[in-house]
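fyi for ur records
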Amino acid sequence: MLYENKGLKMKVGILNVQWLNNYGSIMLAYCMQKKFDLMGIESEIIDFRPHAPNANGEIPSAHKEEKASTFGKIEKCEEFREQFMRRTAPVIGTLDAEKMDYSAIIVGSDTVWTPLRVNDVEARMYYLDFLGNKKIRRISWAASIGSEDKSDLEIMADHLKPRLNNFDFISVRERETTAFVQSLTDKEVFHAMDPALTLDKEDYSEILPGTTYPGEKYIYAFLFDDLQGGYDTINELSERTGLKVVGNVKTPEKLKNILLNTDDDGPSEFFERIINAEYVITDSYHACIFAMLAKKPFVCYTRYRSGIRVRNLLEDLGLEKRFLLSDEMGTDLLLEKIDYGKVFKIRDAWKAKTEDFLRKALSGLQ
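which gave:
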């Protein structure tokens, strides 16, 4: 057990973007809850929803660049939440938010501090404006702005600077963002590890459906964006290895040897596809993390105005070669062996520092 509360009773509220039907967003909430379970800390996920769901079960989102979810995906995302996440009753907007009663509220991870939503109700939630003077410890764990674009940072500087005063302990996810946020506050800003990477592959065993293996070895392709280098790499790798492709991509018609289209997958299937694959080609930050946890050969492409996420992560772990621009080929890299012993040595040291940050942030609560 990583944390001992010495008989004191505490309860932590987790506040993030779990309402979005995005695999990474949902898995992050699960990962934070799982990490606190392993630390011996009671927690629950605050089922914050910026708006009521529409007739399809989705909540309008700033993530307009993502292709629409299928009905199958929407259903499986909610099934995952119901089965694996301990949630409060829904909190729609800031209605009744002031009634929350926790020893601490932890905001994060992922793009909770995004320039896309500075004027939305989410800003009042993810910056904890609604808490007022309540005696609740306020912590950010690996919060992300998600962009390095100069205009985005200018927006965030004015918006974020006064709101950092809401927090007792501050940590952000991207290394370069750490320096930016530090320039806005006198409080110490810690460079924290994403919750998903603080867990090991075995920690996810309870969510595995055991139903996704297609009966033969495969390449897993997951692309949000239409990236020509990504499609070319997938097709060339398939040709050179003879492996078919299990894919969830924006334009599946561009894949020449597709075995299975997985648009209807939920978070559990997404994770299992990755850990059973021979190779992983993606532009998803969390697909990249899960490929590393499973010690798979992978490459990760940049996405528009969000390259800092994966680039900083791979640089920090000594895997910067695996970060590719949209038109680059990655086939030869995928056929190169990754020294995961070296990668996990770095990971374990950073993980220990992140756990120390969490212990310090939660110490003395009751």
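The longest strand covers residues 218-223. thats all i got for now
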